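User: I'll paste a sequence; please echo it back and then give the predicted structure.

Assistant: Echoing your sequence first, then the prediction.
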Amino acid sequence: MESLFPPDRPDLVIQLFKEAAVQPMKRPIQLSNLEFRDLCEVYERICAANENVFSYEFRTPQNLPEWHARRKTQREILKEPITAENVRKQMYK
């Protein structure tokens, strides 16, 4: 899910899971239709509230250097990288 957001916005990954109330440990094939719907609806709200999130594409040449450095960026912003376990901890803070 982190590939949906710019590397300098790891907070949005946490927000997505928190607002959708979906366990980040789940694999995509484990999601129910309702959980998938909730993730989509929250993503839509996040995109509406944050310019350039919907148009962000991590695979474009200009974004790849930032994408490859995302763990460092996450540590600078959150003090830890984005992992399913760390997102889960943030959800229940």
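The helical segments are 10-20, 33-49, 64-68, 70-78, 84-91. The chain has one domain: 2-91.
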